[in-house]
Amino acid sequence: MVSVLKRSLAILSILIIGYWLAQGLAGVPFGQDKMLVGHYYLNHVKEQTGAVNAVTAIVVNYRGFDTLGEVTVLFIASTGVGALLWRKNRKRTAKTEGSVVLTTGTELLFPFIMMFGVYIFIHGHLTPGGGFPGGATIATAFLLLYLAFTVYEIPHRGFEKTEGLAGMSYVLVGLIGLWIGGYFLFDWIWQSWHWGVNNIGRLFSGGFIPVIYTIIGIKVGTELSGIVDNMLKEEVKE
Amino acid sequence: MSISNIGIYYFGAISLVLIGLYGVLVKKNLMKILISLSVMETGVNLLLISIGYVYGKSAPILSEGIGPSQTVDPIPQALVLTAIVIGVATTAMALSVAILIHEKYGTLNIEEIRRLRG
């Protein structure tokens, strides 16, 4: 009886909120050109950044500092998961080994998933994607290994060092920009060295976007694998 | 513009937000509440993307035949890229808190957790 009352109250309140939201959105025309800053970015993205994908150019180049903050948030979350789930003696406790299909499929697919992830992040300035989806794809490859083999663990020391180095090199790229061009995260490869000017639309263009996206991809991949590792292990009492 | 023709994408986005809100209000399992929060987040992302859409234009990747005036707004898409990553981070944190709660109380039902307090 209580649950019926609670349910109907919930439905009533979401109907009111839904009506309110719909009324607000009715004033926003769908499919009309509402761009203000967008036109500037689209008109200048090729000559200013060398990338053809305007979204990644905005994320890495025009708003690179914002993305540095985003990477920091992800780092803090991964550290937080590690701190919350920390125990003295943690091991993998899964008992059933993966089936033949899962283990064989994992062994076959692992290199291809890694390659696809790397493809996504080094082509961030040309195709949809970038460092974050590419890193997530790499982390799924490690998740597959965890699912298939009960004893598998990622090489912790190597992963932690790679993660730290990737984070530091992002800041380093920004600091080199500060040194060459006068402000943090200045695109020195494109604007000072003019690398790949005749190459727009091919892999070796886009200034420092592929460089930073490679760094982000490695960092996100190792971080998400670390989160998976933290969540799958349990405390073992001796 | 009246409320009856708000467009299918706005309708879908609002529906996703409301479905998530319903789950948060009604469900008692902590895991289901977290899933509902993720659904709400998807709704917000869809809303942002559909606000940036322009009729007949293509994705903001400049290539042959697609000039700067033939693409949709890139800024909401860049924003949503950020929002998705932050969503993953917060979901991971929430899930690890849920793991801790399950270790401490042996259940994920929020009413039983409340009773065990003290």
Write a brief caption for the model:
The complex is a heterodimer of chains A (238) and B (118). Chain A is mostly helical and 238 residues long. Chain A has helices at 2-25, 38-49, 54-62, 64-84, 100-122, 131-148, 156-181, 188-191, 209-232, and strands at residues 90-92, 233-235.
Relevant terms:
heterodimer; A: 238 residues; mainly alpha; 2 strands; B: 118 residues; Helix Hairpins; 4 helices
- The average pLDDT of chain A is 90
- What's the SSE pattern of chain B? HHHH
Summarize the main sheet of chain A: 2 strands, antiparallel
N-to-C order of helices and strands of chain A? HHHHEHHHHHE
In helices, the fraction of residues of chain B equals 55-70%
Low-pLDDT segments of chain B:
none
The helix fraction of chain A, in percent, is 55-70%
User: What is the number of strand segments of chain B?
Assistant: 0
User: According to CATH, what is the topology of chain B?
Assistant: Helix Hairpins
How many distinct helices of chain B?
A: 4
Termini separation of chain A comes to: 48 Å
Largest sheet of chain B: none
Account of the 3D structure:
- The complex is a heterodimer of chains A (238) and B (118).
- Chain A is built from nine helices and two strands, in the order ααααβαααααβ.
- Chain A is mainly alpha-helical and 238 residues long.
- Chain A has one domain (35-235).
- Chain B is mainly α and 118 residues long.
- Chain B is built from four helices and no strands.
- Chain B has helices spanning 8-26, 30-51, 74-105, 110-115.
- The longest helix of chain B is centred in the last third of the chain and has 32 residues, at 74-105.
- The mean pLDDT of chain B is 88.
- At the A-B interface, helix 1, helix 2, helix 3, helix 4 and helix 9 of A face helix 1, helix 2 and helix 3 of B.
